Amino acid sequence: MTVRLRFVQSTGDTRELSVEVGRTALEAGLAAGVPELESECGGACTCAACHVRVEPAWFDRLPPPSKIEAGVLSIVEEAGPESRLSCQIRLTEELDGLILHTMARAAEA
Q1: How high is the pLDDT of residue 15?
Q2: Which pLDDT value is given to residue 109?
Q3: Is 70 exposed, middle or buried (0-12, 13-18, 19+ CB in 10 A)?
Q4: Percentage of the chain with pLDDT > 90?
Q5: CA 46 – CA 53 distance, rounded (Å)
Q6: pTM greater than the 0.85 cutoff
Q7: Are the C-beta atoms of 87 and 65 separated by less than 8 Å?
């Protein structure tokens, strides 16, 4: 089964993907070449390069972040209340239509 996942870039451009259930948002975004989405640690929840903001209407539908993810996010200067690491968002049927916002990195801005 697949679910829809939409990435919204800082420019407002969007990319909608059809993704197999069970993959992470990071895996799906990297495979599709989504701009502004990066991973330095390969999805090991240690670098925060895959930081995204979850569309507020979707935030409460995600499981809460683990202590490790919360710790990594605590050192991200741009982190806000809807921040998550895309490597920790495992796609399920309940997340069909999920919207994630990417951010320009300092080198790109």
Answers
A1: 97
A2: 43
A3: middle
A4: 94
A5: 17
A6: yes
A7: no
Per-residue pLDDT averaged across 64-79, rounded?
95
Provide mean pLDDT across the span 60-76.
Answer: 96
Report the side by side order of strands in the sheet with 98-101: 14-20, 2-8, 98-101, 51-54, 83-85
Which has the closest alpha carbon to 103: 75, 74, 83, 73?
Answer: 83
Domain made up of 2-101: CATH architecture: Roll (3.10)
**HSE-CB for 38 with a 13 A CA cutoff:** 12
Give dist(CA 20, CA 108) in Å, integer.
30
Over residues 60-65, mean pLDDT: 95
Residue ranges of domains in the chain: 2-101
Q: What is the mean pLDDT of the chain?
A: 94
Q: Give the H or E element holding residue 53.
A: strand 51-54
List the structure tokens of 58.
């979707």
